[in-house]
């Protein structure tokens, strides 16, 4: 084996049975002072290179302990050179690293985790994190829920912003302002900001006469009026399924009905729908709010819902409403959208067999959070993650089967990144469970079509 390794006994913090060891190493890139380096590839002395796909997860966990951390290539040295630098190394699969062999390019898992840092840092604190990863290395199965990730409304909204960004550098092109997050996903927003989109909370942050996009979640008529007053050029990326609920609110309020809007107070979609008929509408979060309702005419109640609620919970709220107001009626068509419903069914199909459910999505994404709650309600531990860097080793302890899904605003690429990272901890079998297929497509708004 071409790699020297130091004896675990030299480190008083690491018991003999430790699942990792120390090796002489050096960063293969310039390392900013005070940083810990998590290897995304290991360069062996003989020129071979071993990929370390678990690097984003390991770096995320180390970052969470407060150590400044980067990922990058690490060189293993043939001899323990006194560089003041060592790497903590763990390899997968379990049977291989337990044998104490040094990592090599041919081994099925290779190096799973390598963290390099000046010795003084490495041993007490970072070593503990490496050890916690080493202990959760094993073969695993991922049950991939399908459908998952982007829905038609999200695709359309992102396409709108991207199309306008393409035009902004053309002659006569304009800056692209977006009111609120176009969809509730941190990675989507970061990508669009990088390309030049400017996100604002309210219209008064935008110069009069500017180009502004309304987000997928919709806006109230009051916001539209404000845009007109300020002479803004509006491109509306509201999902057509949200627009449908707005139309229902207007229609039934015009008929003199009270509107019970089931949804999360403060959510942008709820604010927008509420604004269609504020005098006639009351927002209800769940069955617990029904007793407090006091409609002027209990025989004229229409209930609407936010598009991204939990199907089962909403059913319970509607049942409580109908119990108290038997004449309460819906507009006839379901407001919870096809994408929300499909993702919940798909997750339900993997939850029972999973030891842990991971859902990709941001904390302010209602439909993503509902998926996590659904799994937990079914008794399976579940976590919402922005990306693989949010996965923590203690979640994976004794976990052989992971259920994986992504909310309607979480990019498909994050699913692939998560699979790749989990595959760095041992052989991964991926089984997709398809409960339905989706072919819904929403054409872009006319303003964008015209300019393409
Ligand atoms: O409504 P929610 O918070 O789930 O929004 P999102 O942007 O995460 O998902 C897409 C939508 C809509 C409307
Ligand atoms: Fe439209 Fe549903 Fe997607 Fe929201 S989750 S954008 S309502 S399709």
Give an account of the 3D structure.
By secondary structure, the protein is α/β, with parallel strands linked by helices. The protein folds into 4 domains: 7-136, no CATH class; 142-149 and 338-434, Cobalt-precorrin-4 Transmethylase, domain 1, CATH 3.40.1010.20; 152-238 and 442-451, 3-Layer(aba) Sandwich (Rossmann fold); 241-324, 4-hydroxy-3-methylbut-2-enyl diphosphate reductase, catalytic domain (Cobalt-precorrin-4 Transmethylase, domain 1). It is 32% helix and 22% strand. The protein has 13 helices and 18 strands. The chain has helices at residues 55-64, 94-98, 119-134, 152-168, 186-194, 221-229, 240-254, 268-274, 311-324, 338-351, 366-377, 412-423, 446-451; strands spanning 21-27, 36-43, 49-51, 69-76, 85-91, 111-118, 140-146, 176-179, 198-200, 211-214, 233-236, 258-262, 281-284, 301-305, 356-360, 382-385, 401-406, 428-434. It has a 5-stranded mixed beta barrel. α7 packs parallel to α8 and α10 (338-351) packs parallel to α11 (366-377). It starts with 20 loop residues before the first strand and ends with a helix. The structure holds but-2-yn-1-yl trihydrogen diphosphate and iron/sulfur cluster. Iron/sulfur cluster binds at residues 151-154, 216, 239, 241-242, 307-308, 337, 339-340, 367, 408. The site of but-2-yn-1-yl trihydrogen diphosphate (0CM) has 18 residues, from α4 and α11.
Provide keyphrases for this structure.
single chain, 452 residues, alpha/beta, Cobalt-precorrin-4 Transmethylase, domain 1, Rossmann fold, 5-stranded mixed β-barrel, 18 strands, disordered N terminus, binds but-2-yn-1-yl trihydrogen diphosphate, binds iron/sulfur cluster
């Amino acid at each position: 084996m071409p790699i020297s390794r130091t004896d675990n006994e030299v480190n008083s913090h690491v018991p003999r049975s430790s699942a990792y060891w120390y090796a002489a190493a050096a960063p293969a890139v310039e390392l900013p002072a005070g940083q810990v380096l998590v290897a995304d590839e290991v360069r062996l002395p003989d020129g071979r290179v071993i990929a370390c796909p678990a690097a984003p997860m390991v770096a995320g966990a180390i970052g969470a302990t407060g150590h400044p951390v980067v990922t990058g290539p690490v060189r293993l040295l043939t001899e323990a050179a006194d560089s003041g630098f060592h790497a903590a190394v763990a390899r997968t699969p379990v049977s291989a690293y337990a044998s104490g062999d040094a990592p090599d390019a041919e081994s099925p898992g290779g190096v799973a985790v390598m963290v390099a840092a000046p010795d003084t840092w490495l041993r007490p604190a970072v070593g503990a994190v490496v050890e916690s990863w080493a202990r959760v290395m094993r073969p695993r199965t991922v049950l991939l829920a399908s459908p998952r990730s982007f829905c038609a409304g999200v695709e359309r909204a992102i396409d709108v912003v991207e199309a306008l960004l393409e035009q902004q550098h053309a002659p006569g092109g304009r800056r692209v302002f977006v009111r609120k997050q176009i969809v509730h996903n941190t990675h989507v927003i970061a990508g669009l900001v990088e390309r030049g989109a400017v996100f604002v909370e309210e219209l008064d942050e935008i110069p009069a006469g500017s180009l502004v996009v309304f987000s997928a979640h919709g806006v109230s008529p009051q916001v539209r009026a404000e845009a007109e007053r300020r002479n803004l050029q509006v491109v509306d990326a509201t999902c057509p399924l949200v627009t449908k609920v707005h139309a229902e609110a207007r229609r039934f309020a015009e008929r003199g009905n009270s509107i019970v809007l089931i949804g999360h107070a403060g959510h942008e979609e709820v604010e927008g729908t509420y604004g269609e008929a504020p005098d006639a509408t009351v927002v209800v979060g769940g069955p617990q709010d029904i007793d407090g309702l006091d409609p002027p005419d209990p025989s004229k109640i229409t209930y609407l819902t936010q598009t991204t609620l939990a199907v089962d919970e909403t059913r319970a709220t509607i049942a409580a409403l109908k119990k108290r107001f038997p004449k309460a009626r819906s507009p006839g068509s379901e407001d919870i959208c096809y994408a929300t419903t499909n993702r919940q069914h798909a997750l339900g199909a993997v939850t029972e067999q999973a030891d842990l459910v991971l859902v990709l999505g941001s904390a302010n994404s209602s439909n993503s959070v509902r998926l996590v709650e659904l799994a937990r309600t079914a008794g399976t531990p579940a976590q919402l993650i922005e990306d693989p860097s949010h996965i923590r080793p203690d979640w994976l302890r004794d976990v052989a089967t992971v259920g994986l899904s992504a909310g309607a605003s979480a990019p498909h690429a994050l699913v692939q990144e998560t699979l790749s990272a989990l595959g760095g901890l041992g052989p991964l079998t991926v089984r997709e469970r398809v409960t339905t297929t989706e072919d819904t497509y929403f054409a872009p708004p006319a303003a964008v079509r015209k300019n393409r």
